[in-house]
Amino acid sequence: AILFIRGLHNKIENRFLLLLLSFGIVGLGSAYFHGTLTHFGQMADELPMVYSMIIWWFILLEWTNSIKQTTKPMHLI
Questions:
Q1: SS3 at position 28
Q2: Does some domain include residue 74?
Q3: pTM of the full predicted structure?
Q4: 3, 11, 40, 76: least CB-packed within 10 angstroms?
């Protein structure tokens, strides 16, 4: 939560804010699951982890696409 608030203050990109928010939700879900040990708690623990990984993949793919667009291939003569 502190990283999310600092990210808002520093005006970082929305995709990184979403990632920081998902980390906080993972932490809450994990605390709920380990506190109750219920099936619902397990879903509250695992689903945010899956969503966080999807966000990570999105950020990684966007980053690699931006690198491909800004660099030019070198051709050997």
A1: helix
A2: no
A3: 0.72
A4: 76
Residue 52: CB atoms within 10 A of its CB come to 18
| Pair 15, 35: CB distance under 8 Å | no
Structural domains in the chain (count): 1
- Taking the C-alpha atoms of residue 22 and residue 5, their distance in angstroms, rounded to an integer, is 13
Query: Helix 14-36 and helix 39-70: axis angle, to 10°?
Result: 160
> Hey, what amino acid is at 14?
N
Cβ pair 23, 3 in contact under 8 A = yes
- One-letter identity of residue 47: L
Q: Collapsing DSSP states into helix, strand and coil, what is residue 37?
A: coil
